[in-house]
Amino acid sequence: MAGLGRIGRRNTTLLSSSFLLPPALLIFRRGITSKLFVGGLSFYTTEKGLLEHFSQYGQVVEAKIIMDRVSDRSKGFGFVSFDSEEAAQKARTEMDGKELNGRTIFVDFAKPKVGFNEGMPIARGPPEPTAIK
């Protein structure tokens, strides 16, 4: 029994260690950052360019442009994570409707990702008949 208790404590300690996760993920999991959705991006906008444009409003933790797997081109939107709510709010109000690389972008707070099972139900055929008593 004592051996099992030690194993359980050891695994918990290893799982909670901060060295297992990158700093950006740690900050995000703690809820410190504010993530913005940036839409209407040009195909020529890079993550570095996005980071440079948004860093004038505060400390940017991460700038990510979503790429198409098949064509390896930008899908035209991305996300920018800030270290504070204030910086994210300032960037949202200042950058929304501005032009970036020849395209007007729109900026809003990112919404949580909806899991596959949490969306619309998938039809699995006709319902089972119910017995009438």
Give a structural overview.
- The chain is α+β, with helices and mostly antiparallel strands and 133 residues long.
- It is 32% helix and 23% strand.
- It has four helices and six strands; from the N terminus they run ααβαββαβββ.
- It has helices at 2-16, 23-30, 47-54, 85-95; strands spanning 34-39, 60-67, 74-82, 99-100, 103-104, 106-109.
- The strands form two sheets. It has a four-stranded antiparallel β-sheet, with helices on one face.
- A hairpin with a 6-residue loop joins strand 2 and strand 3 (74-82).
- The model is unreliable at 4-19 (pLDDT under 50).
Quick overview:
This protein is α+β, with helices and mostly antiparallel strands and 133 residues long.
How many runs of DSSP E, i.e. beta strands?
6
**Could you tell me the mean pLDDT?**
78
- Overall 3D geometry? elongated
The description of the largest β-sheet is: 4 strands, antiparallel
Name the structural class.
alpha+beta
Uncertain segments are: 4-19
Helix content: 25-40%
Quickly count the helices. Answer: 4
Instruction: Record the strand order, biggest sheet.
Output: 2-3-1-6
Distance between the termini: 54 Å
The H/E string reads HHEHEEHEEE
- Kindly estimate the percentage of residues that lie in beta strands according to DSSP: 15-25%
Radius of gyration: 22 Å
Topology:
Blueprint: H1 2-16, H2 23-30, E1 34-39, H3 47-54, E2 60-67, E3 74-82, H4 85-95, E4 99-100, E5 103-104, E6 106-109
Antiparallel strand pairs: 1-3, 1-6, 2-3, 4-5
